[in-house]
Design a protein that fits this description.
Blueprint: H1 2-26, H2 50-61, E1 68-69, H3 70-81, H4 88-108, E2 112-114, E3 127-130
Antiparallel strand pairs: 1-3, 2-3
Helix pairs in contact: 2-3, 2-4
């Protein structure tokens, strides 16, 4: 395993050096060593808050429906954002740490509501919708 990691490290170093040379060819005034690294967010959907907005858009498109399963929301969101996962493990990780957490945050801040009990671990899909406006009069009902 150490040999594989060493080989991968050397390959990545070689690719980085090639990119540095490409930058110099593009503009010899640029110094690649002065370019600060970007701290990427793996599995994120664009700028900060983009996943939340895309999730709200998906829920809004289903606003006429009663409740929507998390499975259907996830599929629509993946199609909307155009996510492509390298492996099933990456998709599972995204589902667990990005998608589910985003749904939970929408529920916690009152934007969305869930039909299922959040503390009950059934292994089944949950059902969600945007929070319905509160009826303030009989006419609103």
């Amino acid at each position: 395993m150490v040999a594989e990691l060493t080989e991968r490290h050397q390959k990545l170093q070689s690719q980085l050096a090639a990119l540095d040379e490409t930058i110099k060819v593009y503009d010899d005034r640029l110094d690649p060593t002065r370019i600060a690294p970007v701290a990427g967010w793996p599995g994120k959907c664009g700028k900060r808050g983009a996943l939340r907005q895309a999730l709200m858009d998906v829920l809004q498109t289903h606003a006429g429906a009663d409740w929507v399963s998390s499975e259907n929301i996830e599929r629509a969101l993946i199609a909307k954002v155009g996510l492509d996962f390298e492996s099933a493990a990456h998709r599972t990780q995204w589902h667990r740490f990005s998608f589910r957490k985003a749904l939970q945050r929408l529920a916690n801040d009152g934007t969305a509501e869930r039909r299922h009990d959040a503390n009950e671990r059934t292994g089944k899909h949950g059902y969600w919708r945007l929070r319905q406006p509160e009826a303030t009069s009989l006419a609103d009902l």
